[in-house]
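Morning run. Coffee first, then this:
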Amino acid sequence: MSQTPHTPTAPPTPSPARPRDRHVSDFKALMAQVRESGHMRRRYGYYWSKLIGLTAAGVGLAVGFVHLGDTWWQIVTAVALALLLTQIAFVGHDAAHHQIFRSGRWNEWTSLVVINLFAGMGHGWWNKKHSKHHAAPNKLKADPDIESEVVAFTGEGARRRTHPVSRWFTARQGWFFYPLLLLEGANLHVHGLRRVLSRGPVQRRWVELSFILVRLGGTVTLVFLVLSPDKAAVFLAVQLLVFGLYMGLSFAPNHIGMPVVPADMKIDFLRRQVLMSRNVTGGRWVDTFMGGLNFQVEHHLFPSMPRPSLRKVAPLVRQYCEERGVRYTEMSIGRAYTAVTEHINRVGRGGLDVWACPLASQYRT
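And here it is:
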């Protein structure tokens, strides 16, 4: 009995991997390089000097305030206090990202003390909002930082403004944006208090509430004990306005004007964080002024990396992105603020929609 000879079949032609699959290992390779370079190591000396130095500066400012007494020169003290509180808030931000200690508990309690007790804001509310932002920067329906009832950061947000007054404001919103940042300090305090006073479960509600009330109540009491009512009111207003402006100026250049991602887009971690972030170039003074947030690309890629390591790792990240054709955006602080203004005005005039480029269609579900 004869057998039919077996004809071997050719192996199937492999289909090209999807871009998302091809890129999934990029961040792992980068992370391996960063770990090997030692930039993820804790910087205890840096942060202990920050914590002790800023606390001492706060105590010294309070002593100087009492010694100076009831005079209009205290407006200078109010500005100095606002600048100091912003620098303190930067340390609270670092602790919330677990940049300071290896222990998660130490980082959490440091963040609670610094943000609630020292700065008078709400750690829980801010941390929840900020975590969502890091998970999906500039992504529609996912990033709370691009959802605002006042300023429209996206075309979708601008189209929701239907009232004539609202439309008039939105069309010119870029010119109002920076003055509006003066109110950001009040906004942060209000949201923090609203969250701890809200119904439903709130982790460490009484700790947060106690810290906030001690800080805000103590400050108001001291100011009115030392200053006459008119000077006290102006002092508190100036401190709050400058604090809000400084906080806003530190965060505004990071993502405003960068691509806005459609809600249905799937994109790998490396590109999600790099393409939607902007670095601000400059010397050490920019690092200090912006609390390290000027290295936004590196901060988003490595949120737990200590702040002083961000400048050191930036050249490695820049080169890695260039080798893979991933756009790495950086510009001077002046150009960054100009880009923010132009973007917000363009959105307000209806001249911008979500990110449209070939890569976007490749990553859509």
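The chain has one domain: 24-363. Good start to the day.
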